[in-house]
Amino acid sequence: MQTKKGYVSFVLHAHLPFIHHPESDDYLEESWLYEAISETYIPLLNNFQKLVDEKVDFRITMSMTPPLLSMLDNKLLQKKYINYLNKLIELSKKEIKRTAGDERLNKLSKYYYDRYSNDLHVFKDVYNCNLINAFKHFQDIGVLEIITCGATHGYFPILYVNEKTIRAQIAVGVQTYERYFGRKPRGIWLPECGYVPESDKYLKEFGIEYIITESHGILYADPTPIYGTFAPIVSPEGVIAFGRDIESSRQVWSSINGYPGDFNYREFYRDIGYDADYDYIKPYIAHNGVRVHTGIKYYRITGKSEFKDYYNPQWAKDSAHMQAGHFLDSRNAQIENLSNNMDTPPIILCPYDAELYGHWWYEGPYWLYILFKKIYYDDCNFQLITPSEYIDRYPNMQVSSPCRSSWGANGYSEVWLNQTNDYVHKHLHVAGDRMCELAWMFPDENEGIKKEALNQAARELLLAQSSDWLFIITNGTMVDYAKKRIKDHIGRFTKLYNQIKSDTIDEKFLKDIQKKDCLFPDIDYRIYR
User: Fold this and answer.
1) Model pTM score
2) Architecture of domain 6-73+130-266+311-410 in CATH?
3) What angle do CA 251, 252, 253 make, to 5 degrees?
C-alpha cells in the first residue's frame, strides 16, 4: 500500500429554490424537486448505503440548503412526489406494452418501470418519506458531512449594501440546519460561492468555521497564498476558506471534454415527452398541454450528429468504470507532484452542484460509487476527507484575505446583476431597509398577530432575495415564473409593511401567505435589529 500523501474532498451543493403551491397543481416548477429526488437524492442515498454495506470507508460533504430542507420536510410536497412517481409507473407500464415489438426499447421501458417502482418503495417504505433523516443517518455514522447555506441562497456580494440582510441569511441558515440535524454546522457553501469580506464577522458570530469559494477567490487573495487552492487559507477575521480545484473540476464538469459528454451516457435532452404521439403522452406532460421532460429517455449521447442510438445501461456503466479509473490516476499524479513541493499534505477540493450527479449526468451517482471503491481498494496515494477533518488535522494555515468572487460566468457578479435583472435590486434593497426599520420600531412583539405579520414579512423578504430568480432571468429559462416570484414576494412584503405600520393587519391575507410561504417556523424578525 502506498503512503497517503494528500487528500481529495468532494463537496456537493444540494439546492433548489422554495417552490410550494398549495393553491394549484399546475406549477410545472414544482417538478424540479421531484426530478431531483428521483435522479439525484435517492441515487446518492442508495450508493452511500451500498458503500456502507460493503464496508467501504469513504467521505463526502454535502450542503443541504434551507429551502431544500423545507421542501423535503413538507407533507404536501411529499404527497405530490408520490403522485408524480405513480404517474411515471403508470406511463412506464404503458411503455412496456407499446414497445413490445422492439426488444431493446422494451428492455429499457422495463428498466424505467423497475427504477420508478423502486423509488416509490425506497421513499415510502425505507425512508418513510423522510429523506432528511436518511442523509442525517450518514452524517451521524461519520461518512457524510452536511454543511449549511444562506437562508434562501441570497447573493451576498449584492445584499451587503445592507449588511443586516446578510446577517439574517446566515442566522436563519444556521438555525434551519440545527433544527434538522441537531448540531451546529461547521461549514457553509456561500450562495453562488459569492464571497465578500463584509460577511466574515457574521459567519464568525454564528459559529461558521469554513467556507467554500471559487478558485480565484483564493488565487487572488491578499497576500497571494503560497499553496494556491491546494491548502485552505484563513481570513484576518478567522474564517477558513477552501477553493475549488480547477483541473479536477474540468474533468467532471466540462460539457465539451468532461466525463458527462461520453457517448455511452444517457442523452438528457431526448425524452418521450417530446418524442411520443401527442394524444398518448398528453396525460403525462404539463397541465396546459405543453410537451415537457417526463424522465423516460431511451437514447444515449451517441455523437454530435442528430442521429441517436438507444441507451445501453451496461455500456454506460463500463464508461463510468473507465472514467473513475482515469480520475483516480489523475489525482494520484496531481498529488504526487504537489506533495513534493508542500510542507503540509495537499487537499484537492472538488465542489459541484449535487444535481450534476444523476439529473444532468445520469450515471454520476454510480461513478461516485465506483470511484470511492477504487480509492478504498486500489493503490492510491490519497484519502477522501471532509473539510472539517482536514482543519482538525492541519490547523496551521496562511492568513490571507480571499478576493471578492463567485462561481458565476466570468467569476464575479454579472449573472445576478445585469441589464436583464438589474431593476430587481432597488426593490430588494428598499425591502431590506424597511425590514430593519420594522425590527427597530417593534422591538418587543412576543405574541399575537403583529408578531406573526412581522415574522411573515421576514420570510417574504428572504424568499424575494433568492439568487435563483436572478439567475433564471439571466439564463432566459423560466423567466415569467422567476419574475412572478420576485413580484409576489416583494408585493406581499410591502403590503405587510404598510399594514404593520398602520396597525391594520388583514388576517385573511396573512393566513393565506403563511400557508403558501410556510418555511422557517422558528424565524424571529428581530434578527434584523
Assistant:
1) 0.96
2) Alpha-Beta Barrel (3.20)
3) 105
